Amino acid sequence: MLVLAFNGSPRPRGNTHRLLTTVADEMGRHGITTEIIDLGSQTVNGCSGCGACRRRQDGRCAIDGDPLNQWLARMQAADGIILGSPVYCAGPTAQIKAFIDRAAMVACVNGDLFRRKVGAAVVAVRRAGAVHTFDTLNHFFTIGQMFVVGSSYWNMGFGREAGEVSQDGEGLQTMVNLARNMAWLIKCIRLAGDQVDIPPGRREVVTSFIR
Ligand SMILES: Cc1cc2nc3c(=O)[nH]c(=O)nc-3n(C[C@H](O)[C@H](O)[C@H](O)COP(=O)(O)O)c2cc1C
After folding, report:
1. Confidence at residue 167, expressed as pLDDT on a 0 to 100 scale
2. What is the pLDDT of residue 210?
3. Would you say residue 201 has pLDDT above 90?
4. Which of 179, 159, 178 lies closest to 16 in space, CA to CA?
5. 80 lines ligand 1 (CB under 6 A)
């Protein structure tokens, strides 16, 4: 069982990484491997709106000069996906927002590639904007028919300089509880297998507001 945790921070070993590591360590205690992928320190282009992903139906983005297509393939093989980001100007970093725009679009128009996978957002923040950032990250999961996991608080940790978030006891506890809930849900989904009917999640009706 595998979870991919994308770190949207350009500081690969900063506070977001510390929070993701806390989740990964706890998940490991429950038999689930979590791989942290440094997204924010790489160039991730924004969506060009070309529509090729809808036309070609190959599960890929037409922009091929960055790692997105490679990540999309790996995400399809994973049981869960975590999106982590620091708060930058009251929102997620530009890198992870670019990832969300393109990955969500490719997934939605190619039959909901991540449907029924488990997802969670994790946020590192100095002072303000964490809830907005958390909500934005969660949009990725909820438009794609994924299951969002909760914890004992919204998944955030407070700190400014790299490592400071380690002093946020409640933040770390939130990550541990998140990991336990995520591991439990992944195991339940695996156990359900084909014993529980899978509901159809069709996208036949598409209206641009009313038409
Ligand atoms: C460009 C930039 C913008 C930021 N904007 C905010 C903000 O709006 N609100 C806030 O509380 N912290 C803000 N911060 C602080 C970071 O969210 C905080 O230091 C976080 O712990 C960094 O996580 P990291 O170590 O994973 O990069 C900002 C930091 C930078 C570099």
Report:
1. 98
2. 77
3. no
4. 159
5. no
| Whether residue 16 has its Cβ less than 6 Å from ligand 1 | yes
- Is 0.70 surpassed by the pTM of this model? yes
DSSP line for the chain: -EEEEEE--SSTTSHHHHHHHHHHHHHHHTT-EEEEEE-TTS--PPP----HHHHH-SS--S--SSTHHHHHHHHHH-SEEEEEEE-BTTB--HHHHHHHHHHHHHHHHTT-TTTT-EEEEEEEESSS-HHHHHHHHHHHHHTTT-EEPP-SS-SEEE-SSTTGGGG-HHHHHHHHHHHHHHHHHHHHHHHHTTTSPPPP-------STT-
Number of the ligand 1 atom closest to the C-alpha atom of 159 = 21
Task: With CA atoms as reference, report the closest residue to 71 among 94, 41, 38.
Answer: 38
Whole-number Å distance, alpha carbon 25 to ligand 1 midpoint, is: 24
Q: Please state which architecture CATH assigns to domain 2-192.
A: 3-Layer(aba) Sandwich (3.40)
* Residue in this structure with the two tokens 């320190």, named with its chain if needed: 41
Count of other CB atoms within 10 angstroms of residue 159: 21
Q: Could you tell me if the CB of 123 is within 6 A of ligand 1?
A: no
Q: Is the CB of 15 under 6 A from ligand 1?
A: yes
pLDDT digits (tens, 9 = 90+) for 10-56: 999 999 999 999 999 999 999 999 999 999 999 999 999 999 999 99
- The pLDDT tens digits for 126-141 are 999 999 999 999 999 9
